[in-house]
Amino acid sequence: MNTDLVNKFEAIYSIQSDAIFRFCLIRVSDREQALDITQETFVRLWQNMLEGKEILNDRAFLYTVARRLIIDWYRKKKSLSLDSIVSENEGGYDILDDKTTVGNILLGAESRYLLEKINELDSSYHDPLYLRFVEDLSPPQIGEILGISANAASVRINRGLIELRKKTGDHYIDK
Amino acid sequence: MKDKKLNLGINELKEIKMTSFEKQRVLDNVLSISASSNTKPIQSPWFNYSFIFTVKRSRLVFYILVPLLIILTSSGVVFASQDVLPDSILYPIKVKVVEPIEGALLFTPKAKAKHESDLASTRLIEAEILASKGKLDAEKEKEINNLLKNHTNALNTALNQVDKSKDNNDVDDIVNNFQDEMNAHARVLDAIIGNNSEDISIGNIGNTSDVSSDIKVNKNKGESFNLSETARFGANKIRDNQKGNNSDNGNKDNKDNKDNKEKDLVLPLMDITNEGVSVTTTPETKVDQKTIGNTSKKIDFSKKNLQKSNIKEKDDNNRDFYIKLLDSETSIKKVDTYFKSNFKFNHGDDGEKKDDN
Asked: Counting beta carbons within 10 angstroms of the beta carbon of residue B182, is it exposed (0 to 12), middle (13 to 18) or buried (19 or more)?
């Protein structure tokens, strides 16, 4: 096997694996399923590299593949999503201690609250907001992942932020 | 600080990570996949028998299949356009594609002439149907008028190309039938529209080869030609042109045979039409009364011509006998078409049943 190719892949994997896993886990609310999707995402990248296909933006490629695999997974199996789990716990966040498990995800109070509010947003807003503020992606990169222009991604981030502030009320201070 | 809460939430989310064990396991699994073990779709065991595989494998099937699909699609449109009227979007396909192709597939001038004669009748029938539905506006009448002129010119051209020494009898039949059809349908059209225009006198029309040019000349003189007039004018023009072109090139025996055939044709037709008129004893509308009146007059006219032809036959004046016989035949054919068509449009199926009786 080509050592350079393996080294290149391992470098990408070490940087992106946690972010992709996080992205998957938050969307599917199941650790094992998130691991499966993460593995499948990197398999696709590895296959493309083996076939000698040129990948211009590794990160955008990985997020795009992961997002589509998540959509496929939802289509195949109507599983309990984080949305429904959170909505079942109506009345907010009944925290027993600093780290509370939601599904299989171990989350703190603030992250649970933030996720709950992001997921309450319109579907066109929560991916751009998550990618912008949690994964620190730029609008052009978000646009590339979601298949929209950088300008449209920027607009969605801003509108999503306004919606989020409306939903959180005075929980977060306006910037 | 409330802003810290947001950052805290984001930082907590960022802390979601794989364990080192999970990370290594996923990496090992991914790297264990070699280039040869690409995840390709599993081929169906029935793929070799599938339609797509057959098309992919055999270029010959592809080259047969594609033209076949085109033919099936286009033949569907052609079939749909068979009986359409000028108010349909498929009508241009019928008159500009289907009918010219049908004509192009006929190789003898005689067959072409017959085809054009049939098309001219079809145009008038279409006009009659539209008029009976009250849909014959000026635009459609003009369109049918132009098509009728084209058919008449094409008929004239085809008739000129027929070898008269061999097919003189057939030419006469085509010309007579065309004239009968045109005049009868013109009368039907007039009855439906209520034009009540009179026949153009045969003797007043000159002997020119191009029919449409004559029509244009008459228009310039201030005479307005509607559809029925165009039909009559075309019919008479075709007859005059062919009379002018015909010379007495047949022998006497042939003529005698032909005369007897014509005579055999006229008498049964006269009986059938007369029977139709006598069955229809109670005219329901003014048009019915007019139809029956006109029919009876024409039958009388036809009978007179037949009697005259018999006198001429006794006098051994073959030429005059034949002309009178033709007049009789023309009149009775015309009146038969007129009678049937007019009752069909006024009574629908009932009219047809009466005719059948």
From this structure: buried
